[in-house]
Amino acid sequence: LMAILCLIAVFLPSFLLVGGLLPLWEKMRTVTDLRQALAGTNAAVVGLLGSALYRPAWTGSISGIDDFIFLLGVAAFLLVWKWPVWLVVILAGIAGGVFL
């Protein structure tokens, strides 16, 4: 019961913001200054996500050239050959356990 309450408490502010701003969204999209502010906010969020990817994920998991080649291979299966994500995760886990 407390877990459900905590889940609601975490996501309720965002739902209230979306519900409150949705009627004004079309009006806000026509204002140039607001569009530019949203573009700047979007750029800041992308920068934060890139930083979050680099610091704990990249520096903690890519420690040598073999890890980097493994990452490129997994990315190729996902992006070039369009394999399903669930299959790539399973195969990468098996291959990582066997080879790395």
Structural class label = mainly alpha
Shape: elongated
Let me know the number of strands.
Answer: 0
Number of helices: 5
Q: What is the first-to-last residue Cα distance?
A: 42 Å
Radius of gyration based on Cα positions = 20 Å
On the 0-100 scale, what is the average pLDDT?
Answer: 91
Which percent bin holds the helix content? Answer: over 70%
- The ordered H/E elements are HHHHH
Q: In terms of per-residue confidence, which ranges show pLDDT below 50 for 5 or more consecutive residues? A: none
Share of residues in strands: under 5%
Sheet having the most strands:
none
What does it look like?
By secondary structure, the chain is mostly helical. The protein is built from five helices and no strands. The longest helix is centred in the middle third of the chain and has 30 residues. The protein is elongated. The relative contact order is 0.05. The model has no long low-confidence stretch (mean pLDDT 91).
